[in-house]
Amino acid sequence: MELFKHTAHALHDMLQSKQISAVELTNAVFARTDAVEPKLRSYITETREQALAQAAAVDNKIARGEQIAPLAGIPGALKDNICTKGVKTTCASRILANFVPPYDATVVDKLAAQDAVLVGKTNCDEFAMGGSTENSGFFITRNPWDTDRVPGGSSGGSAAAVTAGQAIWALGSDTGGSIRQPAAYCGNVGLKPTYGRVSRYGLVAYASSLDQIGPFAKDVTDCALVLNAIAGHDAKDSTSINAAAPDYTKALVQDVKGLKIGLPKEYFAAGIQPEVAAAIQKAVDQLVAMGAEVREVSLPHTEYALPAYYLIAPAEASSNLARYDGVGFGHRASGSDIIDMYKKSRSEGFGPEVKRRVMLGTYALSSGYYDAYYLKALQVRTLVKQDFDKAFAEVDVLIAPTAPTTAFKIGELSDPLAMYLQDICTIPVNLAGLPGISIPCGFAQGLPVGMQIIGKPLAEATIIQAAYAFEQANDYHTRFAPLGEG
User: Fold this and answer.
1) Active-site pick, 136, 178, 199, 438
2) What are the strands, taking DSSP E only, across 288-430?
3) What is the pLDDT of residues 115-135, one digit of tens each?
4) 233, exposed or middle or buried, with CB in 10 Å at 0-12, 13-18, 19+?
5) Could you tell me if 146 and 160 are in contact, meaning their C-beta atoms sit under 8 angstroms apart?
6) Which domain of life is it from (predicted)?
7) Which is more confidently placed, 178 or 484?
8) How far is CA 80 from the centre of its chain?
9) What are the tens digits of pLDDT across the range 274-314?
10) Which of 108, 324, 435, 483 is the most buried (most CB within 10 A)?
């Protein structure tokens, strides 16, 4: 089997036993990228020289007989809204097209401590605002399972790169489903940690109370390894949870006996593609056969989560993106005076979806409308969280579709509201700050179906255990996208 098809944990064993070298593995991933990148366009920036130097350093450690960290020498990628010192971080926006951060994000420092090899920065929706990666300011990324379809978003480049073998693992960010939904569309594993479990220091902010960095991986074991590498308290992030992170690999146990599963009836309502609903039900039946218990639960304020999110997130975005005015950094246009320069810089630098959300948020925060819209949305957010609290008083995890459909065709959802509805199953989890994982649970018309497992706050180990038990009883995670090999 080609090296790019292996998991990180299998490659770690091959590196440590000297069956392969880290440089050989990194070059194999680059060769794969050369073969498929023209079809997919997963990357905005590649860092080949830096990656090969990192790989050579790992090979030297192995040659000296040193034990290496689980991700040492394993090629991975970062979503291009995570700051990397000396390497462009564009957020897929023309306004930051040439921005080079002077510092690394905390997750980048943590990966460096593992001697991970970083092969590039992946494409996404501009400033992580979107669900298809069609809103990138540069180009569209395509789904490896069908290049006429989207990879999901906003972390579509990271998801496509892992599925296609252009990276063994990747990081994305999830504000309303931007890790889990593309993981479902591309058929890999994506995990959104509890808000505060992973440091946001160095993540370019979209909506600060919702953003969270998390991993993409080929299987649940790799997902646990990457989460081990990046989780933990960070004094540089005031919202970071000051609690020790456990070893998530200890949750890799194929046992769900007695696990109480809740099925939220509101997540199986009209609008769910029948094949998706059938795949989820089949997966739940399988977990029950393995010893889990299942019951229906209700999250009655689910229908209000989407409108609340699209007030809170744009409001925070309008504030966070106010800094891009052509003065501090980023694109600057010529203007007759400073106001004209501001206006032209932002008009030229931002794409239509970012402008839409900034205007929505600015309106929601404006004098006279704050109480009617933004404050009301915050109250709804509390009700959504209380729904989850009540459900988790009865069950250990919740299971639902990650997305209501499989990956849609590029250009198919031109109506922004139709696009927003693709996040209906993931947004409530962000509003409540909970962890969620998406794993492959079947196929519909040749396209992957993702199952979302939602946990209590800081219960990443529980959802990893449930996901691992299901994964080990199936082979969906071992299938490869039928992407041409040339």
Assistant:
1) 178
2) 293-297, 397-401
3) 999 999 999 999 999 999 999
4) middle
5) no
6) Bacteria
7) 178
8) 12
9) 999 999 999 999 999 999 999 999 999 999 999 999 999 99
10) 435
Measured on CA atoms in the order 100, 113, 62, 26, is the torsion positive or negative? negative
> In this structure, what token pair is assigned to residue 49?
């020289």
Q: Let me know if 132 is a catalytic residue.
A: no
Total count of residues recorded for the chain = 486
Q: Which residue has the tokens 């902010």?
A: 205
From the candidates 21, 42, 79, 218, give the one annotated as an active-site residue: 79
Q: What is the pLDDT of residues 434-455, one digit of tens each?
A: 999 999 999 999 999 999 999 9
At 482, the pLDDT band (50, 70, 90 cuts) reads confident
Neighbour order of strands in the sheet with 169-173: 43-46, 117-122, 75-79, 169-173, 213-217, 189-192, 436-444, 447-455, 397-401, 260-264, 293-297
Q: Which among 186, 175, 165 has a CA at the least distance from the CA of 211?
A: 175
Active site residue 79: yes
Q: Which of 42, 136, 154, 318 is catalytic?
A: 154
Q: How far is the C-alpha of 72 from the C-alpha of 25, rounded, in Å?
A: 12
From CA 413, how far away is CA 418, in angstroms rounded?
6
pTM of the predicted model over 0.70? yes
